[in-house]
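Weekly modeling sync, notes
Attendees: S.R. (lead), two postdocs, one rotation student

Agenda item 3: backlog of single-chain predictions. S.R. asked that every request posted to the team notebook include the full sequence so nobody has to chase files. The rotation student volunteered to paste the first one in as an example of the format we agreed on. Action items at the bottom.

Example entry:
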Amino acid sequence: MKLLIVIPAYNELESLPGVIADLQTHCPQHDYLVVNDGSTDGTGALCRQNGWNMLDLPINLGLAGAFQAGLLYAWEQGYDAAIQFDADGQHDAAYVQPLLDKLSEGYDIVIGSRFVTVKKPITLRMAGSFIISFAIRLVTGGVKVCDPTGGMRVFNRRVMRVLANNLNYPPEPDTIAYLLRCGAKICEQQVSIRERTAGTSYFTMIKSVKYMAQTTLSILFVQWFRKNDLKEEAAEHV
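Predicted structure, as returned to the notebook:
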């Protein structure tokens, strides 16, 4: 399976070398693409100096927009699958192949989850995750997604086409809920996430609360107004 590892990066000058080294060690057989999301700290220059594969965005689109740009590249270049991989060093490249192997079993999306075999802690930090998981169960007839905000997600070409070629279809929990209702086969694979050691996070506390509220509202209300793009995609390829 031809896989593209998409790495959205905003001001990750300090973390990115370790991320690339990790991928080159554990996934030398797979291609990667750094999506430089309008960084101002020299992230783009670092990629050029080292000859790393890069899509250089002139402005900051945010995490979802940067990943969508990478998905569009993957779609147009004929990749069979694409995986979202953080530039902050939190994702472990050793899990890329197990996620891809699970995808090859016939799933449309595989989520690298922290809470398949590990119990989700009851903390303020996890409150948003609990709420989003509950919202997904409400709208999908009881489908349980243990780690809806897990950022390490691999998508097959069927789903990639929908996400890459439509506006306002970010690869976020509300779109995961929408795809489940459209008939997508989704599973979770246990992974471990490292703590960030350098760089600037996309999410501040205020942005995190806003994200949780917007995502929950989108799951409960907005997604019902979307057409079933997966059904149309299947019809076009009959």
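Discussion: group reviewed the output briefly. Residues 64 and 170 are 5 Å apart (CA to CA).
Action items: rotation student to repeat for the remaining queue; S.R. to check formatting next week.
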